[in-house]
UniProtKB/TrEMBL annotation, chain A:
SUPFAM superfamilies according to UniProt: P-loop containing nucleoside triphosphate hydrolases
Gene3D superfamilies, A to Z: P-loop containing nucleotide triphosphate hydrolases
UniProt keywords, alphabetically: ATP-binding, Nucleotide-binding, Transport
GO molecular function: ATP binding; ATP hydrolysis activity; L-isoleucine transmembrane transporter activity; L-phenylalanine transmembrane transporter activity; L-valine transmembrane transporter activity
Annotated protein name in UniProt: ABC transporter ATP-binding protein
Organism expressing this protein natively: Parafrankia soli
Database matches in InterPro entries: AAA+_ATPase, ABC_AA/LPS_Transport, ABC_transporter-like_ATP-bd, ABC_transporter-like_CS, BCA_ABC_TP_C, P-loop_NTPase
Domain of life where this protein originates: Bacteria
Protein's UniProt keywords contain Ubl conjugation: no
An annotated GO cellular component: plasma membrane
One of the GO biological process terms: L-alanine transport
PANTHER family per record: AMINO ACID ABC TRANSPORTER ATP-BINDING PROTEIN, CONSERVED COMPONENT OF ABC TRANSPORTER FOR NATURAL AMINO ACIDS-RELATED
Residues of the ABC transporter domain: 19-270
UniProtKB/TrEMBL annotation, chain B:
Origin organism lineage: Bacteria, Bacillati, Actinomycetota, Actinomycetes, Frankiales
Keyword Plastid attached: no
Signal peptide, first to last residue: none
Membrane-protein topology: Multi-pass membrane protein
Species the sequence originates in: Parafrankia soli
One Pfam family in the UniProt entry: BPD_transp_2
UniProt keywords, alphabetically: Amino-acid transport, Cell inner membrane, Cell membrane, Membrane, Transmembrane, Transmembrane helix, Transport
GO molecular function terms attached to this record: L-isoleucine transmembrane transporter activity; L-leucine transmembrane transporter activity; L-phenylalanine transmembrane transporter activity; L-valine transmembrane transporter activity
Protein name as it appears in the record: Branched-chain amino acid ABC transporter permease
A GO biological-process term: L-alanine transport
Length: 278, 309, 523
């Protein structure tokens, strides 16, 4: 990780919440995936969502990012001083508002190079007009140069500077995860949603990931994190929300949550393999 | 709107054509169920089946003669079997040449579609080259006439033969998929091919069986269709799209949905053609297709082959 | 989730593996283990008759495939049958001489493919593993899923091509040479050949360039593409002639002004079709566009009062320039139209080349490769797909104008087969490759023209169909694939620095310098 500052979003000037989820309920036919979920995240903080498989964590992400539309509830998001509603917007609008995400099963653009992957994200913020790129005017070239600079800075930031020209599919698994994060950061988010970023990571990669998340948060980007590895969660998150069967069963500081009997019960009966990992 | 007779005649005609659409639609639905792919070349399987039945029955029926009685029944059956076998052979060759090599190489979805389109282009033009490019009638296998009148609608022998055969095939397939061991493997693969493979189902075999089954149905259906509308090398295209519409209308991947969709589409087309103009039947069918895809892409009965029918 | 499902009798070795290794890999390993376990009892099934080992060996299988290909080739190239003697064509295909010839051809093909495989194996064992690995990556990058032999060959070719194209001057020089050939050669050809260059090659190259945007860049399968061609042609008829059609626009314009009109009308038609349908999944989109193409043709055929019906449209004024001091009419000769087409094609290629390397092009690529991820990254996927549709449609409309001013057309011109022909050209040339699809049109249609006395025009489509299948199996990236990200592991002196000095290189980029402008950094 370099110490170079990432050209992040406008630094958070105000305190207060970045995200306020209220009573989100999502049903598929007769199956209730989320049942009145509420949570609140402070600006610049790292919040972790944990829970057994099928608890509704990824569904919650999908509701926040516009992939699903919940039947009830609201998710207010403050990119700046004024809040906006996320529910009901299409995914690309949500991304443009400043909520970026990664996927549990990595979804990159496999045949594009690493730097191009990031470019797609960065260019979302470029000046509108599909025809603009057609004439290589001075302004367009300067824009393209700035875009590329920023992409390389982001790749350096996640430690992939030396892999910039490789096709994404040719990167190692852990590198792909970091590239996904770089692409998400490219959209200049105020809030970054990470869906199991440490899944399948080695011990060393987990350590790196902790550093990376701290660095991201250090730039004023709030991070909402789904993760199974309790140790990793405890190392990065100030607060934890526990979901089970689509409901919030506990919330609070890591040590509080770990001691909560409801959480212990939720995890009993389904021992988590990853907890006895590295 | 016309008289009661007209209404019942339109209904009967619609159901008859609809039953044929349903038979072809089953091929789309079965293949879609196991592969999650639209088999673009299915219409050519249908066409080749029609030619198979046509040539087989022409070899047996002397020119100008019209058999009757049991001979007729035997000839119809023979033509159906020949059509079905030709369809099955075509479907097997299709799977072998245009699908399996791609599956082995792990090709993306688009590649299968394109390859099937290539197969379709190849097959129907080759048929045009080998069998001539004009439309050919099926020889008369029985004396066609009005058998029975229902509510003023005349039902011809031909309609009766088509309806009965189609019904028998639909029931047989429904039983096969819902009530046999083979059907169980087909449904297992449709739900989760990887998992079915782990449980000892030979996925490759199931795929082949599905194609062949669809080919049998389409081939027999092609022969039935050719009895009314003659056979030609381009005959597959329009019924193919309509059968696909039927499959989507009922819920693609769903066997009973395909039947329901076929009958419904037949009715819509029959009445629509009467209300507007017969030459706009195809436009009506396409419009139904577009509307269904836009409004309810999962169809009337939902899209899973695997769900308990 | 499935990882944790207790798998039946999992061995300790497998379990420890699953803990340590990465999720995906361990899962795959388990699958393999389980599958082999399931397979073993099946193989030892007492009642089952085991296949002879020889018949299942890869070489035997390949022999079967080669002989099958030979049989198909014999039938396809054989005499035609007809309805009265349906098997005559097939019988005629297997005269002793033909049968022997094709059997020998099949065997030769088999020997060749086996030999190529042996060579690959030997190369690999002889320590060329690194080079092959590079080839694999290159193949992966290019979106290929080819056999090892193919990968090796692709890496060889790609290496050569990449080296050739990377050169600062060689790419523009190569393009200029191609252009020079395209300009200099046609006057030397016969009139029939010039005619084919216009109506069979040039127009289809333009159509293929347009469809390439839809299929190659955005990954949308449009099977009704020819409808926009029809719309362009009929629009031209309406605005340039007062008597060719039963109905015409209140004013007539010079055919040159039909170009922008057709562009706009076709683009609008593209948006109108795409608006409701582009939300559909790939295969549904294909079939809906197929229906759309069919409806347009049906309307052109049936609506006599508006389109003139099946008798078609003729007598449109040819293209002409009437400026003070300059009077020139394209007349009826093919050559002037050919040069017009060359200008249009080069223009379209240059514009698309610039576009493909702009953020619009990247957004299209992103959509093609993972639409969900593109949308989540903030790409307005719906708008970009509509744009691709509209752009493709407008190029098709351009081609329609040239067609309409050049020659007679009727609804038959815009049949499904024409749509599929354009698709075949794009597949053959290389999806996403501008030079590829133009060369594809030249090679495919040129071959068809050269063989016009041997192969009846109606039979061409048999070969086109076969070409599509064979390309999808053996060379899905096409004749001349688009350049993917540079293959990283390619050994050689031209090893790039870890991070190229991108900004300077970009600043020095020559801009739209033709089809293969050498902005390696953009890739």
């Amino acid at each position: 990780m370099t110490g170079r500052p990432i050209p992040g979003p406008r630094p958070s000037t105000t305190l207060g919440p970045v995200l306020d989820v209220r009573d989100v309920t999502l049903r598929f036919g007769g199956l209730t995936s989320l049942d009145g979920v509420s949570l609140r995240q402070d600006r610049g903080s790292v919040l972790a969502v944990i829970g057994p498989n099928g608890a509704g964590k990824t569904s919650l992400f999908n509701c926040l990012t516009g992939a699903y539309r919940p039947q009830r509830g609201s998710a207010r998001f403050w990119p700046a001083d004024d809040g906006v509603e996320l529910v009901g917007r299409s995914p690309h609008r949500v991304a443009r508002l400043g909520v970026a995400r990664t996927f549990q099963n990595i979804r990159l653009f496999p045949e594009m190079s690493a730097v191009e992957n990031v470019q797609v994200g960065v260019e979302v913020r470029a000046r509108p007009g599909a025809l603009r790129g057609l004439l290589p005017t001075r302004a367009v070239r300067r824009e393209e140069r700035e875009t590329l600079d920023r992409c390389h800075e982001l790749l350096d930031f996640v430690g992939l500077g030396h892999r910039a020209e490789r096709p994404a599919a040719a990167l190692a698994y852990g590198e792909q995860r970091r590239l996904e994060i770089a692409r998400a950061l490219g959209t200049s988010p105020s809030l970054l949603l990470l869906d199991e970023p440490a899944a399948g990571a080695t011990a060393a990669e987990r350590t790196d990931l902790v550093t990376l998340i701290h660095a991201i948060a250090g730039r004023g980007i709030s991070v909402l994190l789904i993760e199974h590895d309790i140790r990793l969660v405890a190392a990065v998150a100030r607060a934890i929300v526990v979901l089970n069967f689509g409901r919030v069963i506990a919330a609070g500081r890591p040590d509080e949550v770990r001691a909560d009997p409801a959480v212990v019960e939720a995890y009993l009966g389904e021992p988590d393999e990853r907890r006895d990992g590295p | 709107m016309g008289s009661a007779e007209q209404i019942s005649q339109l209904t009967i005609d619609g159901l008859m054509v609809g039953a044929l659409y349903a038979v072809i639609a089953l091929g789309y639905t079965l293949v879609y169920g196991v592969l999650q792919l639209i088999n673009f070349a299915h219409s050519e399987v249908f066409m080749l089946g029609a030619f198979g039945g046509l040539f087989a029955s022409r070899a047996l029926v002397p020119a100008g003669a019209t058999p009757s009685g049991l001979t007729s029944a035997g000839l119809v059956l023979f033509g159906l079997v020949a059509g079905a076998l030709a369809g099955a052979a075509a479907a097997y060759a299709l799977e072998r040449c245009a699908y399996r090599p791609l599956r082995r190489r792990g090709a993306p979805r688009l590649a299968y579609l394109i390859s099937a389109i290539g197969a379709s282009l190849f097959a129907f033009n080759l048929a045009g080259k080998e069998f001539g490019r004009q439309s050919i009638p099926v020889p008369d296998l029985f004396t066609n006439g009005t058998v029975v009148t229902v509510l003023g609608a005349e039902i011809s022998t031909q309609s009766l033969v088509i309806a009965c055969t189609a019904l028998a095939m639909l029931l047989a397939v429904d039983h096969l998929v819902a009530g046999t061991r083979l059907g169980q493997s087909v449904r297992a693969v449709a739900q989760d091919a990887e998992c079915a493979g782990l449980m000892g189902v030979d996925v490759q075999k199931v795929i082949v069986v599905t194609f062949v089954l669809g080919g049998l149905l389409a081939g027999a259906g092609g022969f039935l269709y050719a009895m009314t509308f003659n056979a030609s090398y381009t005959m597959g295209f329009v019924p193919g799209i309509k059968a696909f519409t039927a499959a989507v209308l009922g819920g693609i991947g769903n066997v009973r949905g395909a039947v329901l969709g076929g009958l419904l589409l037949g009715l819509v087309e029959s009445f629509g053609g009467y209300l507007f103009d017969a030459s706009y039947k195809n436009v009506i069918a396409f419009t139904v297709l577009v509307l269904v895809l836009l409004v309810r892409p999962s169809g009337l009965l939902g899209t899973r082959l695997g769900r308990p029918a | 989730m499935k990882l944790r499902r207790p798998a039946p009798r999992r061995s300790p070795a497998v379990r420890s593996h699953s803990v340590r290794a990465r999720k995906a890999q361990s899962r795959r390993a388990q699958l393999r283990e389980l599958r082999s376990r399931m397979a073993r009892p099946g193989a030892a099934r007492p009642g089952g008759v085991p296949w002879p080992v020889v018949a299942r060996s890869p070489a035997a299988r390949r022999l079967g495939a080669c002989l099958f290909l030979a049989v198909i080739a014999a039938v396809v190239t054989g005499p035609s049958g007809d309805a009265d003697r349906p098997l005559a064509g097939i019988e005629g295909s297997f005269t002793p001489a033909r049968a022997a010839g094709f059997a020998a051809g099949g065997l030769a093909l088999w020997a060749l493919s086996i030999g190529a495989d042996r060579l690959t194996t030997r190369l690999r064992s002889a320590g060329h593993g690194a080079a092959l690995g590079g080839g694999r990556l290159a193949a992966l990058g290019g979106g290929a899923w080819v056999t090892p032999a193919g990968a090796a060959w692709a890496s060889f070719r790609r290496g050569r091509w990449a080296a050739f194209r990377r050169g600062r001057w060689s790419a523009p020089a190569g393009n200029l040479a191609l252009l020079a050939v395209a300009v200099a050669v046609p006057p030397l050809l016969s009139t029939a050949a010039q005619q084919a260059l216009v109506s069979e090659i040039g127009i289809y190259a333009l159509l293929a360039l347009g469809l390439n945007v839809v299929v190659g860049y955005a990954g949308l399968l449009d099977l009704g593409y020819i409808a926009f061609f029809a719309i362009g042609a009929y629009t031209t008829a309406y605005v340039t002639s007062a008597d060719a059609m039963p109905w015409h626009a209140p004013w007539q314009v010079n055919p040159f002004f039909a170009l922008p009109v057709a562009l706009v009308v076709a683009a609008v038609a593209g948006v109108v079709l795409g608006g409701p349908t582009l939300r559909l999944r790939g295969d549904y989109l294909a079939i809906v566009t197929l229906g759309f193409g069919e409806i347009v043709q049906l309307l052109a055929n049936n609506a006599d009062g508006v389109t003139g019906g099946p008798r078609g449209v003729f007598g449109l004024p040819p293209l002409s320039v009437d400026l003070p001091g300059v009077h020139y009419s394209w007349g009826l000769r093919p050559l002037p139209y050919y040069y017009l087409l060359v200008v249009l094609i080069v223009l379209v290629m240059v514009v698309f080349g610039r576009w493909e390397r702009s953020r619009t092009g990247r957004a299209w690529t992103a959509i093609r490769q993972d639409e969900v991820a593109a949308e989540a990254t903030g790409v307005a996927t719906m708008r970009m797909k509509l744009l691709a549709f509209a752009v493709g449609a407008s190029v098709s409309g351009f081609a329609g104008v040239v067609l309409a001013t050049k020659q007679f057309f009727n609804p038959q011109t815009f049949g499904l087969q024409s749509s599929l022909l354009v698709l075949t050209i794009v597949i053959f040339g290389g999806m996403g490759s501008r030079l590829g699809v133009v060369l594809g049109a030249l090679v495919l249609q040129g071959t068809a023209f050269l063989l016009r006395d041997t192969v009846p025009p109606a039979d061409r489509y048999i070969y086109f169909g076969a070409v599509v299948i064979l390309m999808m199996i053996f060379r899905p990236q096409g004749l001349l694939p688009p350049r993917g990200p540079r293959a990283p592991a390619s050994p050689g002196p031209a090893a790039a620095p870890e991070r190229p000095a991108v900004p300077t290189e970009r600043a020095g980029a020559p801009g739209p310098a033709g089809p293969a402008a050498s902005t390696e950094a953009a890739r």
